[in-house]
Write a structure and sequence with these properties.
The protein is an alpha/beta fold. It has 2 domains: 180 residues, Medium-chain alcohol dehydrogenases, catalytic domain (Quinone Oxidoreductase, Chain A, domain 1), CATH 3.90.180; 123 residues, Rossmann fold (3-Layer(aba) Sandwich), CATH 3.40.50. 30% of the residues lie in helices and 25% in strands. The protein contains 9 helices and 16 strands. Strands 3, 5, 6, 7, 8, 15 and 16 form a 7-stranded mixed sheet that branches. α7 links the parallel β13 and β14.
Length: 332
């Protein structure tokens, strides 16, 4: 079968398009899926760069087939799988192998998708949607009347966080690296959108010195310490990414000095522990999409041959919306 494989870490050039990869065999606890569409995101880039080479949370190792989220139709089920059957329309994330015509996926990672949700929508929404859902619902426990600051709000997850926070009735402050990116945050429902320079001071001015209840920080080194200043006493800092680099010299005393803050660095894997949890998160995301309160933009549809170009744009910070790869347009 056709697949995008990785045998060594490096730049986009190390990704190989192969036409002779053996079709996966269905095993116990897994389902075999004919892939219709796969999502492209930063985790694919991080996999290629080797950032998960020693990860315990995401134990993907070389050689591997890229693509950690997808959607398609179940064609076979393994021993011990009773809640899924051939013909089911499904989507999944954080299970590698989606950039291929067929993928063997742990049944506990799979969610059934409504008929009204297209395979490209499901592939685009699964990882970012479930990530935004657990950050809002489980980590921040955001409620009506709360306030939050969302960095990089024009990014795929940032846009979903803005929409979900507004849907709950929270006040949403955002940052962006350009006027255009700030405008995207405002279009998604943010109350305020500012450049990064001086964002903590701006937040304190608007909140009369109190600060926000929660900060969602995916930027890391360039913003994290200033995020402390923008947060209220006993507030929550959710550091779920580090695109500007990691802070390696943080003294926990700083959290006390900043107002007895709670700092967490969560990962989706620990919040997708079993099949019912995966289905519950997917149901919430898909329901919001169908009712029109959650929009997941697809920046473009690509072929496997074009994935290297998309990776290069992601690394150059030129890719804002979500991209997907079509594997089989004939599936319904």
């Amino acid at each position: 079968m056709k697949a995008l494989t990785l045998e060594t870490y490096g730049g986009p050039e190390v990704v190989q398009l192969r036409l002779d990869v053996p079709k996966p065999q269905v095993t116990a606890g897994h389902v075999l899926v004919k892939v219709a569409c796969a999502g492209i995101n930063f985790m694919d880039v991080h996999t290629r760069q080797g950032k998960y080479a020693k990860s315990v949370t995401y134990p993907v190792r070389l050689p591997c087939t890229l693509g950690m989220e997808g959607a398609g139709v179940v064609v076979a089920v393994g021993e011990g799988v009773s809640h899924l059957a051939p013909g089911d329309r499904v989507a999944w994330c954080i299970s590698w192998g989606a950039f291929a015509e067929y993928a063997s996926v742990p049944a506990a990672r799979v969610a059934q998708i409504p008929n009204a949700i297209g395979f490209d929508q499901a592939a685009a929404a699964m990882f970012q949607g479930c990530t935004a859902h657990y950050l809002i619902e489980d980590v921040a426990r955001l409620q009506a009347g709360n306030s939050c600051l969302i960095h990089a709000a024009s990014g795929s997850i940032g846009q979903l966080l803005v929409q979900m926070a507004r849907r709950l009735g929270a006040t949403v402050f955002t940052t962006g690296s350009s006027t255009e990116k700030c405008a995207i945050a405002l279009q998604r429902g943010a109350d305020h959108a500012w450049p990064y320079d001086g964002f903590a001071e701006r937040v304190l001015q608007v909140t009369q010195g109190r600060g926000v209840d929660v900060v969602f920080d995916s930027v890391g080194k360039a913003t994290l310490r200033e995020s402390f200043s923008a947060c209220r006493t006993r507030g929550v800092i959710v550091n779920y990414g580090n695109v500007s680099g990691s802070i390696t010299d943080l003294d926990p005393m700083e959290l006390g000095e900043a107002g007895s803050l709670f700092l967490t660095r969560p990962r989706l894997n620990d919040h997708m522990a079993d099949g019912p949890t995966v289905q519950r998160r997917a149901n919430a995301v898909f329901a919001a999409m169908l009712e029109g309160s959650l929009t997941v933009d697809i920046e473009g549809h690509y072929t496997l041959e074009e994935v290297q170009q998309v990776h290069a744009r992601i690394e150059a910070r030129q890719q804002i919306g979500k991209a997907v790869v079509w594997l089989d347009r004939e599936l319904h």
